[in-house]
UniProtKB/TrEMBL annotation:
Domain annotation ABC transmembrane type-1: ranges: 84-287
Key words, A-Z: Cell membrane, Membrane, Phosphate transport, Transmembrane, Transmembrane helix, Transport
Name of the featured protein: Phosphate transport system permease protein PstA
Major subcellular location class: membrane
Subcellular location: Cell inner membrane; Cell membrane
UniProt KW Acetylation keyword: no
Database matches in InterPro entries: MetI-like, MetI-like_sf, Phosphate_PstA, Phosphate_transprt_permease
GO cellular component terms given for this protein: plasma membrane
Superkingdom of origin: Bacteria
Keyword Membrane assigned: yes
CDD domains attached to this UniProt entry: TM_PBP2
A single MF term (Gene Ontology): phosphate transmembrane transporter activity
TM region(s), chain numbering: 30-56, 88-112, 124-146, 152-170, 199-223, 268-287
Length: 295
């Protein structure tokens, strides 16, 4: 039996139509590429102008007194030592509190509640917290810890920052644990290891780079938060490490000094903004390098 195709059933190629279609696709592709490049160029121009202004004015205001002197009245050549210390203290405590909670919740979602209704509810609430405006979290902590205890405090600021960092760690931990193949879990369980030991010694160890990346991104997020601290720790122009009272912080000092009529305070605000930018940039670079390196 002959296998030759029937010429009547073979589609006839219209070269003119194909050429018109090709030219139309090329025009559409060129238009999309042009719009994308234009949008990218506009965004880069604005970003470069912001960074250039920040670096020029910020580096011009940096000096030794910024790191050795506390904030003082206008014209007193003060610095940002108390604000830097307060920010480091609050961010460090928030990270210490929020990271274990976020890791445990993320582990629960990835290892115990996968596909369950309760897990979906927890994941939904975590996603809401992840996208919630930080000022709402500040108002929540204000109602929870500031009003009942009769005043602003550093602990209230730590609580607000902890709530912000928790969903970031939750999402990263769950995503990193979900990437681990189930065959690895089955092999460990098949050897007789309990599930908790499998999670701690195998899953966490395999996902450690991704989890650390999430923690670093969370620290970068809370390091520059101003709105929640306005309703919680409030700020303090004096040296203070007492978390039971108002606590100074770099974002609050920048917010207060940037709008002042005093030139030395404005220069300190530029210096503080540069310090936060450099810290966030360093944390992002470190996080990306860890994520690229993998486990």
């Amino acid at each position: 039996m002959s296998m030759t195709a029937n010429p009547a059933l073979t589609p006839v190629k219209d070269r003119a139509a194909a050429a018109r279609l090709g030219r139309r696709r090329k025009r559409a592709d060129a238009l999309a590429r042009g719009l994308s490049l234009a949008a990218t160029g506009i965004g880069l121009v604005f970003l470069a102008s912001i960074l250039a202004t920040l670096f020029v004015k910020g580096f011009g205001a940096l000096n030794l007194s910024v790191f050795t002197e506390v904030t003082r009245p206008p014209g007193s050549n003060g610095g940002l030592l108390n604000a830097i210390t307060g920010s480091l203290l609050q961010v460090a405590l928030a990270t210490v509190i929020g990271t274990p909670i976020g890791m445990l919740v993320g582990t629960f979602l990835a290892e115990y509640a996968r596909g369950s209704a309760f897990g979906n509810v927890v994941r939904f609430v975590s996603d809401i917290l992840l996208s919630a405006p930080s000022i709402l979290i500040g108002l929540f902590v204000y109602q929870l810890l500031v009003l009942p205890f009769g005043g602003f405090s550093g602990w209230a600021g730590v609580a607000a920052l902890s709530i912000i960092i928790i969903p970031i760690v939750v999402r990263t931990t769950e995503d990193m644990l979900s990437l681990i193949p189930n065959t690895l879990r089955e092999a460990v369980i098949g050897l007789g290891a309990p599930k908790w030991k499998m999670i701690v010694l195998v899953c966490w160890k395999s996902a450690v780079s991704g989890i650390i990346t999430g923690v670093l991104l969370g620290i970068a997020r809370i390091a520059g938060e101003t709105a929640p601290l306005l309703f919680t720790s409030l700020g303090n122009n004096a040296w203070s490490t007492d978390l039971s009272g108002p606590m100074p912080s770099l974002p609050i000092t920048i917010y207060s000094y940037a709008g002042s009529p005093f030139q030395d305070w404005i220069e300190l605000a530029w210096a503080g903004a540069l310090l936060i930018t450099l810290a966030v940039l360093l944390l992002n670079i470190l996080a990306r390098s860890l994520l690229r390196r993998g486990p």
